[in-house]
Design brief:
Helix content is about 55%, strand content about 5%. The chain is mainly alpha-helical and about 700 residues long. It has a six-stranded mixed beta sheet with strand order 2-4-3-7-6-5, with no helix packed on it. It has a three-stranded antiparallel beta sheet with strand order 1-10-11, covered by helices on one side.
Length: about 700
């Protein structure tokens, strides 16, 4: 046998070129010899044609490439983003009012997605990583559509929104009819709040369905593309998810301008329209359309083969950047023992551990802002429940596109290694920490006269009926009143916005010209809605929030790249899945619950505070939060988490130890056949050819 030369491994393309040259020089080799080079642990026999079962015609093979796969899974990510991060989060304040839920419960509804994702993520990632990934993705997309459909059940299972009807919320003597109406409102409160469990179950189903999409979707692209190109593909995929969230918020804002019961006859919305505090929008409509979109994508995704054509060659051409300790333990076996050994191996890898801590912080902040961003804008700057998600969605949409695509482009342009990706994350997390104090911004606080938390406690509003709703008005004295009744108003002067006159609680010297040239005698006047209409701090807040969105979106592509490339390919899906379990358990799940609980602590006026009647003591939803403490609590929490992220990613870079890329690989040359054949062993990938 001839001597075995030492060469550096240049990938399957180099070997193929040498074979072609040998064939041209007269040796008995041909292109068919490429099939003899098996570099994929026996997976070379996998059918790589596009289609369903035996139906795989040639006309469908145009879709059988990474670009079309990216197209379909990106739209699936878009639909998922619209549902989970847009429509649901954008309508949380509406759900609170309609089903009389505190922020802690709506936060738990949002966390239901994370609970579903985190509870099964590690098992699905382990099983699916060894199985048929496109079919797992298709099944998950179907479940997301089903979860969105289930989320609408409470709307169709309840009657018309009674509190939203036009009411005479002026000062009138108490009577039995009013007391009875108040009692009925409380009686239905407990029944409505039980729909919390339907919302929670739907969100859990959304979470379970999203696991294959976000674990196997990027991994399928990563293993089908060279490292330099995978970053931009993953950036586009994640950008579509963020775009879905932004579009979802915008769509939610638009739908909330439609009255909640527009589909029912004989319903009369509040006369003030969407600016009326009693107005509730049609939060449920968007879910029906997104269910259809998700289900339309199931069949095209399910048609993809287990591997795209050419995946084995791409895999062989890559240079491993896996942490050295993970490469040395390539034979971990299968079954429960393999599962436990894989988990132990990841736990002993410092880079994986510290990047997991960073990912926990990323998703904590991301979920916190995505869940309660519109509510924060609504509270801090006096926006309406329809305007806040609209603006939030527009900011999120642009920021996510810029962040994801620029991040992916930088990764491709600089051809960043794992070490480069870690350095990129250090810069981004530092920016995130420096921007977090911007959440303290707010418009100047307008005093809320809620001495009427015991309505008969003030002589000017002594004749108030039991006002079970929050119908805030702005007085000519610059104060906000819980309702026209609490301002002592006895006449409705009409107009848009609605004007109320003869308000004995408004100082009589505060006579000003009101909309429609209305005048009032015997007291001041008030207009429907909050006093705050905007301030310069609001526009600075929008800019900072945009930069926060860009930074958070830009962190995702390098985070995916680190998770996939810092371990061998056969562990990549499992590594990401195991990481996501901790991300959900310690980041995404507690995030909305913690923020919701903090916001409840800042509540100045609960729904049950609006009456002194014993039958009207239901706590219900929070109507008004203290602006300073709400901003302070959220800033301290998200800023502290951002600081932990910076420290963690620095430690991840410090302990990163890649394999030696200069390691020689033996290639045996056969003199008898004139082609390279016998043995190519590349430990980094764990494959052979023979």
């Amino acid at each position: 046998m001839a001597s075995v030369p030492k060469v550096r491994f240049l990938g399957i393309r180099k070997i193929a070129d040498d074979m072609m040259v040998t064939s041209a020089s007269g040796n008995s080799s041909s292109q068919s010899d490429l099939k003899d080079i098996q570099l994929d642990n026996g997976r070379d026999q996998v059918d790589t044609r596009y289609g369903w079962g035996p139906f795989k015609p040639d006309c469908l093979q145009v879709f059988n490439n990474p670009k079309w796969f990216l197209f379909f899974v990106s739209w699936a990510a878009f639909a998922q983003g619209v549902i989970v991060n847009g429509l649901i989060n954008g309508a949380l304040t509406t759900l609170e009012k309609r089903f009389q839920l505190p922020s802690s419960q709506t936060g738990l509804i949002s966390a239901g997605y994370e609970i579903g994702f985190g509870s099964l993520c590690v098992f699905i990632s382990y099983l699916g990583g060894l199985g048929y990934k496109p079919r797992w993705i298709a099944t998950g997309v179907f479940l997301v559509g089903a979860g969105s459909l289930i989320f609408t059940i409470p709307h169709f299972a309840t009657g018309p929104y009674e509190t939203g009807l036009a009411t005479n919320n002026l000062c009138n003597p108490r009577n039995d009819t009013t007391a009875e109406a108040c009692s009925n409102d409380v009686a239905t409160s407990g029944e409505l709040s039980n729909f919390f469990y339907v919302f929670f179950f739907a969100q859990v189903l959304n979470g379970v369905g999203s696991i294959p999409l976000y674990i196997f979707g990027p991994q399928f692209l990563e293993q089908s593309l060279p490292s330099a190109a995978s970053g931009i593909y993953e950036g586009i995929f994640l950008a579509m998810s963020y775009v879905g969230a932004g579009v979802g918020y915008i769509l939610s804002g638009q739908l909330l301008t439609l009255y909640i019961d527009f589909d029912l006859e004989n319903t009369k919305p509040p006369p003030g329209g969407p600016t009326d505090p009693r107005w509730l929008g049609a939060w449920w409509v968007g879910h029906l359309g997104c269910t259809c979109l998700a289900w339309l994508l199931v069949l095209p995704i399910a048609a993809y083969p287990k591997e795209l054509p050419g995946t084995a060659m791409v895999r062989a051409a890559k240079v491993s950047e896996a942490h050295a300790s993970t490469v040395k333990a390539s034979n971990i076996g299968k079954g429960i023992k393999g599962f436990l050994r894989s988990l132990a191996l990841l736990a002993r890898t410092p880079t994986i551990v510290f990047t997991t801590v960073t990912a926990i912080g990323l998703y904590f902040n991301l979920n916190a802002l995505a869940t309660f961003g519109p509510k924060l804008m609504e509270n801090q700057f006096g926006m309406t429940s329809s305007m806040a998600p609209l603006i939030f969605g527009a900011i999120t949409l642009v920021a996510s596109i810029v962040g994801s695509l620029v991040s992916g482009a930088v990764i491709k342009w600089k051809q960043l290694s794992v070490a480069g990706l870690l350095k990129m994350c250090i810069v981004l997390t530092a920016v995130l920490f420096l921007l977090s104090p911007g959440l303290l911004l707010k418009c100047e606080t307008v005093e809320l006269d809620n001495s009427s938390s015991s309505p008969v406690g003030s002589s000017c509003s002594a004749n108030c009926a039991c006002p079970a709703v929050y119908d805030v008005v702005c007085g000519a004295d610059g104060k906000e009143y819980v309702s026209p009744c609490h301002a002592g108003c006895t006449s409705d002067l009409g107009g848009d916005p609605q004007v109320f006159g003869e308000c004995s609680c408004v100082p009589p010297q505060m006579y000003v010209t009101m909309p429609g040239n209305a005048t009032s005698e015997g007291g001041g006047m008030v207009t429907s809605g909050r006093c705050v209409s905007g301030c310069w701090q609001m526009y600075v807040f929008f800019l900072i929030f945009f930069l926060l969105g860009v930074t958070l979106a830009a962190l995702s592509p390098p985070a995916y790249g680190i998770a996939f490339r810092s371990v061998p390919e056969h562990l990549s899906a499992f590594a990401l899945g195991a990481q996501m379990v901790f991300v959900r358990l310690l980041g995404s799940i507690p995030s909305p619950i913690a923020i919701g609980a903090l916001l409840d602590l800042t509540c100045e006026l609960w729904q049950g505070d609006l009456s002194d009647d014993a039958s009207c003591d239901s706590r219900g939803a929070c109507w008004v939060n203290d602006r300073f403490t709400a901003g302070l609590y959220i800033t301290l929490l998200t800023g502290g988490i951002s600081l932990i992220m910076v420290i963690s990613v620095i430690l991840a870079l410090h302990y990163y130890r890649p394999v030696d890329k200069d390691e020689d690989v033996e290639i045996e040359t056969s003199q008898n056949t004139g082609r390279r054949s016998s043995l190519v062993v590349v430990e980094n990938f764990g494959f052979e050819s023979g």
